[in-house]
Amino acid sequence: MSPAAVVAEEDGRSKGSSTVASGSSQSLDCFSQNGAGLKERNYLGLSDCSSVDSCASTVPSLCDEKKENMNLKATELRLGLPGSQSPVRDPDLYTLSSAALDEKPLFPLLPTKDGICSLQKTGTTVVSGNKRGFADTIDGFSQAKFTGSTGMSTMLSPRPSGAQPSAMKEMPNKLQERPCQTNNGTSHNHAGASVSGSAPASKAQVVGWPPIRSFRKNSMATTSNKNNDEVDGKPGVGALFVKVSMDGAPYLRKVDLRSYTTYQELSSALEKMFSCFTLGQCGSHGAPGREMLSESKLRDLLHGSEYVLTYEDKDGDWMLVGDVPWE
Amino acid sequence: MNYFPDEVIEHIFDYVVSHRDRNALSLVCKSWYRIERFTRQRVFIGNCYSITPERLIQRFPGLKSLTLKGKPHFADFSLVPYDWGGFLCPWIEALAKSRVGLEELRLKRMVVSDESLELLSRSFTHFKSLVLVSCEGFTTDGLAAIAANCRFLRELDLQENEVEDHKGQWLSCFPDSCTSLVSLNFACLKGEVSLGALERLVARSPNLKSLKLNRSVPLDALQRIMMRAPQLADLGIGSFVHDPDSEAYIRLKNTILKCKSITSLSGFLEVAPHCLAAIYPICPNLTSLNLSYAAGIQGSELIKLIRHCGKLQRLWIMDCIGDKGLGVVAMTCKDLQELRVFPSAPYGNPAAVTEKGLVAISMGCPKLHSLLYFCHQMTNAALITVAKNCPNFIRFRLCILEALKPDPDTLEPLDEGFGAIVQSCRRLRRLSLSGQLTDQVFLYIGMYAEQLEMLSIAFAGESDKGMLYVLNGCKKLRKLEIRDCPFGNMALLTDVGKYETMRSLWMSSCEVTVGACKLLAKKMPRLNVEIFNENEQEDCSLEDGQRVEKMYLYRTLAGKRKDAPEYVWTL
Fold first, then answer.
1. Which residues in chain B have Cβ-Cβ distances shorter than 8 Å to A118?
2. Contact status, residue A99 vs residue A24, Cβ threshold 8 Å
3. Can you give the residue ranges of the F-box domain (chain B) (predicted)?
4. pLDDT given at position B249
5. Closest to B134 (Cβ–Cβ): which among A206, A215, A220?
6. Which of A275, B55, B180, B384 is 20 to 30 A from B517, alpha carbon to alpha carbon?
């Protein structure tokens, strides 16, 4: 049940063309301590790819066969309500799939919406986030959705994500091919030090873990956002990427909230980003003249009743973009 | 039994202050019970649902100070659904109706409404002190009522509450006649306050010893405030950002030099590191330093600062200090008693703290008795060393950020390490476990942790035996909270009488079933056994074999509570 694709938030290394999304880094797949025997989970059930990057640092030593079998169970495709957990509880599963249990199940009909790990979130956000996303998918709301909480900062693996803003913007076109990255690998490389266990963004998003008071968690998010603007010369927490999905689009986009300063900017940027889909729908890929027409049509579409910008906040509620001051 | 007249006994009882001692006095004989009851001024109620307000008032008519705690501890980590309970309202209403002259109210994890605050402010003429910790449900309007109506208010202390800002200038509601403030803490408020009103309030409060500002108070206002309150002992800084060449900053530096009495410093909710040098002069006097919300201070600046703080007894920081920084703490702060190291990001900073930092601290700070430590990894060897170096632990809370992580050197569980801690620290009262743990650690805890009162367990254990070791062994256990452990019905039901000796038990994502909980509730009528049924589906038939997601049970004399929301089933 682990999500298929791990969004390459760091350097967008693609692992060869045949790579299908591997198990997420958060379903702590069976990695041995010294990096050998890496195993990927393949949501399409194709043969395991061996070309995953180093996730050696992260995972604890749950490398016996037994755990691997458990893992298989945890990662099997299942339909079910998002956030619902398997009634058969195995505590071992927690190491491997605590996130998996909380995440959206794979829904083969809509490969674009599923299997994508959301960017750094606290446990609560992810759990509800996935739930909402899934529900929205099913109900087919015609809303462009943010999947991500605007309040949260990229505190995890900061350097990697800060370093590659441009690589992040574009998701690979083909559905079948996703870079199977784990954040650990890259942050491991970047950080230099071999600190094990520091699995950032896509790590197990278990509700209430680590046990930090929600007040403190929320404070950390807002403070760290503000202070990073003031610290000179430090990349610090560079970019604040959030996923944006538009209903009906074949794939999602990621935007760096820090590169905008007003809601207006953001919404025009999103317009441009998603215009290709709408243009596609209008069937006008061709002549520039017609494109121009369609652009204005798009604007009407986006500002009219068809699409509104919404986002999910840290409490898991869908909010209309624009109410809260930009900062 | 009574060789002395009542007045003499009363006088003696005046010297007995602690709750436990007082409780013990009241059990000696009927006449001591009676005398104690009428002279009791301070009451502590660890679970607001364990007794009704009416009964409290009836027994202690002379009540002046009340402490109430509401939600279970795991509510802090979003494990308790919204609206579970812990409402202040019925308590205030009952107290207001009675003739109790309440002067002090301390609340933790309770739901406090503006109406309750308003009623509180109007009902007790000598009300002096309000302390709210991790509460919610109120807005700045409620605070305005407190400010406006409590004429002899000495203390308004808001710690980590979720307060809605209604932009109503609550601080301006303190009347000009209010000159009694000793402690004011509004650091958790998100909105702005009238800086003029704040300065005037400080100016007319000669007894003000503790002041904690929120983020909206800028550096120049801080300087003016400090000018008017050179007697401050405890300062929480809001915003500490300014151009270091500016006049305001230079004025601040000079003002700080005059504040010789500051021994406790906190806040720095917004901070520009280049401004920090201004506080170096007061650092040598500090006994308490809380920089756990100062996200703007990086590791190297933290270390620079701490080198000046030779007298620290209490230090709360973030893990960006790193293992090296903790080494500096160990060298500098020889009197350190309490240390908390928080993660600077939900899953920690890659360059953060490990077992090495903790070992360094244990070597340099033998007086350490309270620890909260979030880290990336821990080894058995380190824990054994720490246990040897610091046998005085009262509170030992270790959180290895990655759940179920074993000792990275030996790949073994951390049973031996924690075992060493409980064996060495005979006075241990509070323990939080993490990392990979088998039933063995619980055997150690049951055997050695004789003074243990509170135990928090997550992702640990292998079988019911683990929980049973604890329940059988820890005679003084009061609060047990367990999440995501394979403890089931056998563990729950083997010794049901135990729970009446405890305040509460929390079990979530374990293996207990509805049937077992029902059985327990039936056997023990003086326990409330609550199950949270958070399924959105309407068919709420609870079958006995169904696994319980969240269970919270507590002893009570008040019976089943009437304010439980729909998803809470009291069996």
1. none
2. yes
3. 4-45
4. 87
5. A215
6. B55
| Upper half-sphere CA count for residue B324 (Cβ side, 13 Å) | 8
Q: What is the pLDDT of residue B2?
A: 59
Q: Are A82 and A135 in contact (CB under 8 A)?
A: yes
| CA-based nearest distance A214→chain B, Å | 6
| pTM beyond cutoff 0.80 | no
Q: For the structural domain made of B1-40, what CATH number should be given?
A: 1.20.1280.50
pLDDT at A276: 61
Task: Identify the CA nearest to B499 among candidates B517, B524, B481.
Answer: B524
The better pLDDT of the pair A195, B437 is held by B437
Counting residues of chain A whose pLDDT is more than 90, the rounded percentage is 2
From chain A, the residues in CB contact with B160 under 8 A are 213, 215-216
Phi and psi of B129, rounded to 5°?
A: -145, 125
Give the pairing type, strands B527-532 and B550-555.
Answer: antiparallel
Write out the residue limits of the CATH 1.20.1280.50 domain(s) in chain B. Answer: 1-40
Instruction: Measure CA of the first residue to CA of the last residue in chain B; give whole Å.
Output: 45
Q: Decide if B422 contacts B443 (C-beta within 8 A).
A: no
Sign (positive/negative) of CA torsion B10, B14, B15, B17?
positive
Question: Is 90 exceeded by the pLDDT of residue A206?
Answer: no
Q: CA-to-CA distance for A189 and B567, rounded, in angstroms? A: 47
Q: Please, are residues B132 and B104 in contact by the beta-carbon 8 Å criterion?
A: no
Confidence of residue A85 (pLDDT cuts 50, 70, 90): very low
**Domain B44-208 coded CATH 2.60.40.10:** no
pLDDT at residue number A322: 73
How many C-beta neighbours within 10 Å does residue B102 have?
22
User: Where do the CATH 3.80.10.10 domains begin and end in chain B?
Assistant: 44-208
CB B118 within 8 A of CB B142: yes
Kindly tell me the number of DSSP H helices and DSSP E strands found in chain B: 19, 23
Could you tell me the two tokens for B272?
């520009």
**Which residue reads 């960006």 in tokens?**
B320
**CA distances (Å), A133 to each of A5, A54, A87, in order?**
16, 30, 23
CA angle, corner B167, sides to A265 and B140, nearest 5? Answer: 130
Partner A, chain B 307-346, Cβ-Cβ below 8 Å: 342-346
Write the single-letter amino acid at B366. P
> What distance in Å separates the CA atoms of residue B457 and residue B433, rounded to the nearest whole number?
6
Residues 6+ apart with CB under 8 A from B18: none
The residue ranges of every structural domain in chain A are: 241-280+292-320
Contact B310, B333 (CB under 8 A): yes
Run means of pLDDT, 10 residues per run, chain B, 571 residues? 81 92 93 93 96 96 96 95 94 95 97 97 96 96 96 96 91 94 96 94 96 94 94 94 85 90 94 89 96 89 94 95 95 97 76 91 96 95 96 96 92 96 97 96 97 97 96 96 96 95 96 94 94 71 85 95 90 85
Contact yes or no for A60 and B350 at CB 8 A? no
- Who among A87, A120, A215 is closest to B162 (CB)? A215
Higher-confidence residue of A281 and B364: namely: B364
Length of chain A as a residue count: 327
Query: Per the structure block, which two tokens stand in for B535?
Result: 């399924």
Place of tokens 């900073």: B349
Each residue's pLDDT tens digit, A95-108 = 433 333 444 443 44
* Closest residue, chain A, to B134 (C-alpha): A215
Question: What is d(CA A29, CA A33) in angstroms, rounded to the nearest whole number?
Answer: 12
Q: What angle do CA B453, B458, B464 make, to 5 degrees?
A: 80
Q: Could you give the CA distance from residue B347 to residue A198 in angstroms, rounded to a whole number?
A: 7
- Residue B404's closest chain A neighbor by CA? A95
Q: Mapping DSSP to helix (H, G, I), strand (E, B) and coil, where does residue A277 land? A: helix
Average pLDDT, chain A: 49
